[in-house]
Amino acid sequence: MEPTFPLLRLPDNAIIKVFQNLPLGTLFFISLVSSKTKKFVTSLGLRADRVDIRIDRLSEVVVHTQVPYFNLPLLPFTLLEFKDWMNHIRTIFCYTSPPNVRFFQGCERFNVQSLKDAIENVNNLLLSRELTNAFSRNVLKHFNIPNNLCLRKNPFEEVLEIQKIFLQNFESIAFHDFFSLDDMLLVNSQKTIFTHPTTQKQFNQFIKHWTHGSNPRLQYLYLLINKTDVVSGEVYLKGIRCMEMSEDAKREIRQKHRLSVNADMIQIRRKDGTPAVIATKDENILYVRFIVLY
Q1: Which residues pair with 124 in a beta bridge?
Q2: How far is CA 84 from the centre of its chain?
Q3: How far apart are CA 144 and CA 226, in angstroms?
Q4: What is the dihedral sign for C-alpha 128, 279, 167, 179?
Q5: What is the pTM of this model?
Q6: Model confidence over 90-134: pLDDT tens digits?
Q7: Domains along the sequence of the chain with CATH
């Protein structure tokens, strides 16, 4: 039998020094031993930058600290246990912000209302394409006020239902399914990402509406235009008053928004004088970023 070390019999300051040199995962599980060890670990002032929860067949919680991060597999677990885990994580890592939650195939075995009760509010909410439409709608019903939303597909049959989602004032929304011009004009998020390719004509119509005052909260829009639609010329700029930009101004925007050095751009203005740039990168598809300059 290997000799044991009576760690908890040491003076408090000695215990803390030992704890300060232990790996993050070890500290977490030591904090579960007793209220005394929990108190010592909490006193270290560990801070989590964010907490990510992945819910599927092999559910897990990933706690991101500066260096490194802590991965906690939760298989199997009950929702009651899960709520206890979350409360413990919040205490140990002094974490009060909403977590990021991603739903993947296999999560359907859980009751959504019970998940909501255990997790409470969320920061980023992602629903994968593999989920059934009914389950996705149920998640959106209960987790209805995330800061950021990512939908891998449209779970609604009625157009008005997905448009209700677009109308919400998220910080950002990423949508990976077909979208119409009406959908674009209803978007009320600061940052919007559309990954289903659109047409030059639709983007052109959107820009014209924006110059007349639509989408007042929008600060950043990312979308793709089919390459086959580009051969007819730059239709997406037709009828839009554009202003040339200096290379210095382009370089500054590329750096600030992490754009490719090959991205070209032009500037436009809304009728109220608000400036914006349209940055494009032409590869197999036309990558478009519309950035409002406040």
Answers
A1: 148
A2: 25
A3: 33
A4: negative
A5: 0.88
A6: 999 889 999 999 999 988 888 899 889 888 899 999 999 999 999
A7: 46-155 (3.30.420), 157-294 (no CATH)
